[in-house]
Write a structure and sequence with these properties.
Blueprint lengths: L1 E8 L7 H17 L5 E9 L3 E8 L2 H13 L5 H6 L5 E6 L15
Antiparallel strand pairs: 1-3, 1-4, 2-3
Length: 110
Amino acid sequence: MLGLTVRWSLTEAPDGVEEQLATYIAETSHARFTGMAGLRFKTWRMVPGQWFEGCYVFASTEARAEFERTFTAGAAESPGAQIIGSPPILIEACDIVAVAEGWDGFEALR
């Protein structure tokens, strides 16, 4: 599977940024990526005070390349960068070796 990781540092982000990110995801970003063509799934991960990350899994090389190209071109102006106050520190294509769904299944939002 074809992955892409986008990570921001939160070490110098303003106070309350974690709550702002969670609100943005719940109110806007989750809906934007739900049902997106070429995307298998996206997860949002965060270690408060350290980093915030989007992890994408794409259905094709073309879908990943197009998203990476357009995202990278506007990364400094992306909603995440605007909320955090800085551009991503990492945009990295990767391979996803496997995904297992546990007994309790996936949960869309916390």
